[in-house]
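Hi W., the adenosine-5'-triphosphate complex you wanted:
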Amino acid sequence: MDDVCIDIVKLTKVFANLKQKAIDNLSVQIKRGRMVGVIGADGAGKTTLLRLICGLLKADAGRINVLEKNPLVDKTQLMQKIGYMPQKFGLYEDLTVLENLKFFAALKNVAEKFDFLPLLRFADLDKFQNRLAGKLSGGMKQKLGLICAMLGVPELIVLDEPSVGVDPVSRQELMKMVKQSVQAHTTVLWSTAYMDEAMAFDEVIVLDKGKVIFQGKPLDLGKDAVEFEEKIVSLMGGAHIRPSVLARNYPIFNLDAKYGVEAIDLSKKYGGFWAVENNSFQIKKGEIFGLLGPNGAGKSTSFKMMCGLAKPTSGTAKIMGIDIIKFPEKARAHLGYMSQKFSLYPNLSVIENLRFFAGAYGMQGKVADKAIKRMCAIFGFRKFLNVNAYELPLGYKQRLAFACAVMHEPPVLFLDEPTSGVDVLTRKEFWNHLNALSKIGVTILITTHFMDEAEYCHRISLFYQGKAIAIGSPVELKKRANAATLNEAFINLVHGSEGVGNVD
Ligand SMILES: Nc1ncnc2c1ncn2[C@@H]1O[C@H](COP(=O)(O)OP(=O)(O)OP(=O)(O)O)[C@@H](O)[C@H]1O
Ligand SMILES: [Mg+2]
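Structure:
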């Protein structure tokens, strides 16, 4: 059994408030030294399985062995050998980047003289070592969490969706780094919703409804990400996507504004650091406008200023022609905002969150009930109604946050990485909704790190180091960067403007 890293026999885990078993009589064996991808739709059981392996949950039935130990009984001993990065990595927000690394290094008994610089450089955080972790962008936090989990040469590395929110350039580097730093006997378990990523694993495990429905080489699932994707959909019973009904009955907007959204010389300075510098653009009514760019480029900061949640250092934004600084309440009444960081109330259930947001938008009685019912039907919340928001699978958290942003039917939507961590099917479903809304005149500003999604935007502003380095349609950007794909255009344009702006 020397070569077996994880041995699971007939494992079952039930959560009282969920209608189906999270893990259902699951058996699987994972050999040492393999890099294994765990793939599955939202709610398939990925996180539960990884948490059982790390001894953070107790199974209801079955047997589980990790590095020849029982993860519940030998937890302390095992934790020295496992590098675990949960979906929401517990960074210390009031410690700096370097202090966080030192803290996790001490936990893992890493030598005091350890040189953190190569890791910091890899994560592009060397320039920001002394910044508080709480003040990093979403993707920067994710990268810091990852390098903390890699400390101390663990025998098993368990990464729960490590690439969520990481930009396309860094995503490639991340995979490379994990591959390089693992030694021959190190096993890696990496859960993901990105099919193109899955191709790089030695082996993939596909989960569906708490069961393993495929284990083998990624090539056996298809020759590329698309074929792969189709095979998985068919393995899951060929789920199909219904056309969006979200735009049905949406009110007609008679606001006499030239643009849906306008940013006018928006700037934000933190200390001596320009997070956003002189950003201007106009978005036509009904346009889907993508804000793209590497982690830390200033996308979320721009969103927050345009929604009236952060005060610009200079400049302003208009929502349906209404100035967000002069008339914040009136402007905000016309927008729905989905923040990058989970914006729901974690200790309220799905239905309680929906009721809370309906109230916040001034909906009452039958109007509120009707809106809530519609959201439940459209997004499939029925089986989760009484589950607390923080316990939801990531994809359902995102759906709930989206539902809470659109339930009052605003003419302008700000969506900050709405599809990060969402499975392929749900991503398609999201875009069905967005296209339907755009067709009836809803203006949509969206950020994403998925380049296939960026293709669906009418226009894109590519952001880097606080500045717009290119604006245009996907076709125009590719032409300008002399690139065949948007991914390539992204990389070329960013590399071409290295060093344009902000350093601490
Ligand atoms: N309160 C703050 N104090 C200091 N710096 C901040 C603060 N908030 C954000 N920043 C910095 O501003 C920069 C832009 O952050 P922002 O969150 O806008 O990036 P982003 O483009 O959304 O990145 P990501 O793709 O990772 O979400 C980052 O360098 C971040 O560390
Ligand atoms: Mg962001």
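The chain has two domains: 4-235, 286-300+335-496.

W.
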